Amino acid sequence: MKRFLDFLVLLLKILFKQKEANQQAVITDIFQEESVLASKEIQAPPRQQTTNTIDSEEHFDQVIVPHKKTKLLSKNFYIDEFQCRCGECKTFTISSELIKRLQMVRDEYGKPITVTSGYRCPAYNKKVKGVPNSYHIQGLAVDIAVISSLDRFLILKAATKYFTGIGVAKKFIHLDIRESSPVFWTY
What we know:
- The protein is an alpha+beta fold.
- It contains five helices and seven strands; from the N terminus they run H-H-E-E-H-E-H-E-H-E-E-E.
- It has two domains: 2-39; 50-186, 2-Layer Sandwich (Muramoyl-pentapeptide Carboxypeptidase, domain 2), CATH 3.30.1380.10.
- It is globular, with a radius of gyration of 20 Å.
């Protein structure tokens, strides 16, 4: 949001400076200023630690891990958002294609997305009652929190373009990049 506001301020400055200049000069300046903004390091805002109280829906991790501002995997997603929530795993696998597609959904949705589950080790997957051959274990799936029907609709509208496995529950959406034919289900 700050980046967008900075861009608008720069745009207004340029427009007032170039009021009498031709339109091509204004457009050139706008694109130059935008490229300066785009080259700056992009950081998502820190998230607060919260605890979900959902216990009736399977496949939904109970704790959302706060960001430590670790390595960015994309414009809006940090590596720690996708780590196993068991607290014991030292390494994990997550698909770069999954991150790329999730970022495209985030860009279309236009609001922050909270990852509630990314990679799961087999032990943690069993603990949260995930299916034995879960795409989470392979680093090919993510669960994201949804808080309203409108958010669910907007996320699904974008997700159907990029994901082949989509599961919908009351408080979360499962997205995966399985190689089989597209599948859609509800919990």
